[in-house]
């Protein structure tokens, strides 16, 4: 299955494992909570989905790459303990607490969250001395003499033998005690993730047209050559920073992330062309509604790859503004919730300034708790920081103007909030206008062609554009999308008809 489906399966299993009965006991006892074994090629996002699941379930995550550990750090150090059996004293070997188990307890102490995921990566690549301990861990949820705390779900990840020569096969006894999930690279799923994470548009457009380069691995006498989703994402982040610094990403830079010379060379060449297209087609002007005639003549004679790159540039611009709208909406929604809380607190006859200070302090503590538990996404962190800054400003206004009456204070804050609401509405309107300008260009340049189909398809894959189009009425989007759905339905029906064996 693909990584998206794997995430759903793992999340469902974790939610089932953590479900409690009326007496506060886990419905599925710990002994029956099978560790989840996630098997798949390296670099496809196994660690990322564990971070996402932990945030979405609001539980903790402790992650280890087990190949970095010795038997002593994983199992603990031996020591001699005196014990009495049958009236006689014996020397017995005990073990100190495993570093891995100890880190779980430390996480509980640090965050106050008593449930979580213990994620062990590369579990089938351990050394010979550590292999028995890993089997014990999967079978009995223990390292040495110490158990994984109740409420903590074990998820382990490993690579199939074809990707790692040091892989050790698990025996039947072990495999019969785990919930095994096999994942494979799937570009369409990763593409959705890429849009959401803000992967560089050049990477997305390049891989869209060369999907066989998304995940590629070869083992030859000269060594191993590979391109992975992890490599593409890390390269994307570097390109974005290099652009801000005015630095060039050449073949050598690409090759340090995409360790497949043929692909690295090809992408480096494509990136140069991408930048050229960005300048030649004056995308920023297009997004302002200015479409010089010379651009239309140029694109009419362009190759299909060039047309795809221009479409990608347009999509990048509208996605950027959609992302800003999404962030601003989350920020305004947070302020609105705090405004409602303020009204409730004032209803308790508290002094206006003191009541607002209470709201601010609670918000700050809420942010700190979620930060400690690593439950916030990058966007959510920004929302909290912006929101707290604005709440501090509101408090300062109340203090400086010495507004003590609750109704007056609430009306003052509501007026200040209206400014933020107005700014959000202007941003939303601007985003809608840019989308209309993008459609203007697409219609004039391509009409109802395959290029328009690609444009609509990409909008449908982008979480930010989907969310925006749920609120914004864009007639042309619905027109072309309706036609796209009709064409797909017609094509599927025709394919089914062709597969039917007609009687002689």
Task: Please outline the helices and strands.
Blueprint: H1 3-17, E1 36-39, H2 46-57, E2 60-65, H3 71-75, E3 78-85, E4 88-95, H4 99-111, E5 116-121, H5 131-140, E6 142-143, E7 146-147, E8 152-158, H6 172-175, E9 179-182, H7 187-197, H8 201-209, E10 216-220, E11 223-227, H9 229-245, H10 251-255, H11 261-280, H12 283-286, H13 293-300, H14 304-346, H15 352-372, H16 378-400, H17 406-445, H18 450-461, H19 463-471, H20 475-499
How would you characterize the overall build of this protein?
The protein is α/β, with parallel strands linked by helices. The protein has 3 domains: 3-75 and 102-184, P-loop containing nucleotide triphosphate hydrolases (Rossmann fold, 3-Layer(aba) Sandwich), CATH 3.40.50; 186-280, no CATH class; 297-504. It has helices at residues 3-17, 46-57, 71-75, 99-111, 131-140, 172-175, 187-197, 201-209, 229-245, 251-255, 261-280, 283-286, 293-300, 304-346, 352-372, 378-400, 406-445, 450-461, 463-471, 475-499; strands at residues 36-39, 60-65, 78-85, 88-95, 116-121, 142-143, 146-147, 152-158, 179-182, 216-220, 223-227. A 5-stranded parallel β-sheet has the order 2-5-8-1-9, sandwiched between helices. A hairpin with a 2-residue loop joins strand 10 (216-220) and strand 11 (223-227). The longest helix has 43 residues, at 304-346.
């Amino acid at each position: 299955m693909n990584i998206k489906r794997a995430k759903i399966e793992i999340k469902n299993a974790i939610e089932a494992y953590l479900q409690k009965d009326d007496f506060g006991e886990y419905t599925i006892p710990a002994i029956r909570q099978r560790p989840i074994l996630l098997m798949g090629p390296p670099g496809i996002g196994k660690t990322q989905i564990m971070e996402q699941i932990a945030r979405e379930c609001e539980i903790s995550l402790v992650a280890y790459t087990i190949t970095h550990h010795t038997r002593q750090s994983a199992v603990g150090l031996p020591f001699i303990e005196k014990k009495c059996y049958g009236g006689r004293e014996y020397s017995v070997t005990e073990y100190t607490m495993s570093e891995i188990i100890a880190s779980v307890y430390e996480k509980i102490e640090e965050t106050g969250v008593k449930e979580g995921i213990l994620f062990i990566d590369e579990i089938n690549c351990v050394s010979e001395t550590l292999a028995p301990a890993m089997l014990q861990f999967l079978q009995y949820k223990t390292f040495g003499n110490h158990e994984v705390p109740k409420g903590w779900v074990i998820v382990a990840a490993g690579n199939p033998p074809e990707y790692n020569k040091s892989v050790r096969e698990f025996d039947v006894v072990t495999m019969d005690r785990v919930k095994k999930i096999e994942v494979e690279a799937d570009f369409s799923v990763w593409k959705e993730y890429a849009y959401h994470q803000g992967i560089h548009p050049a990477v997305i457009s390049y891989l869209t047209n060369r999907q066989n380069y998304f995940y590629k691995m070869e083992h030859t006498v000269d060594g191993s050559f590979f391109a992975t989703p992890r490599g593409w994402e890390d390269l994307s982040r570097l390109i974005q920073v290099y652009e801000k610094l005015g630095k060039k990403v050449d073949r050598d830079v690409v090759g340090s992330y995409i360790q497949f010379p043929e692909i690295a060379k090809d992408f480096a060449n494509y990136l140069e062309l991408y930048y050229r297209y960005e300048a030649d087609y004056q995308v920023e002007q297009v997004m302002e509604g200015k479409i010089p005639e010379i651009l239309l003549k140029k694109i009419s004679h362009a190759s299909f790859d060039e047309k795809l790159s221009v479409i990608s540039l347009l999509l990048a611009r509208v996605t950027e503004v959609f992302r800003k709208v999404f962030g601003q909406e989350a920020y305004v929604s947070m302020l609105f919730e705090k405004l409602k809380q303020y009204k409730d607190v004032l209803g308790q006859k508290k002094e206006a300034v003191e009541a607002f200070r209470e709201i601010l302090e609670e918000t700050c503590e809420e942010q700190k708790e979620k930060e400690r538990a690593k439950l916030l996404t990058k966007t959510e962190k920004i929302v909290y920081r912006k929101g707290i800054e604005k709440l501090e400003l509101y408090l300062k206004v109340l203090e400086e103007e010495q507004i003590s009456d609750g109704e007056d204070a609430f009306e003052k804050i509501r007026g200040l909030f209206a400014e933020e609401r107005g700014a959000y509405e202007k941003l939303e309107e601007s985003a809608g206008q840019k989308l209309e300008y993008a459609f203007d260009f697409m219609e004039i340049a391509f009409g109802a062609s395959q290029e328009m189909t690609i444009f609509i398809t990409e909008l449908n894959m982008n979480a930010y554009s989907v969310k925006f189009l749920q609120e914004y009425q864009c007639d042309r989007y619905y027109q072309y999308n309706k036609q796209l759905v009709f064409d797909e339905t017609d094509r599927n029906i025709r394919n089914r008809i062709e597969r039917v064996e007609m009687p002689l």
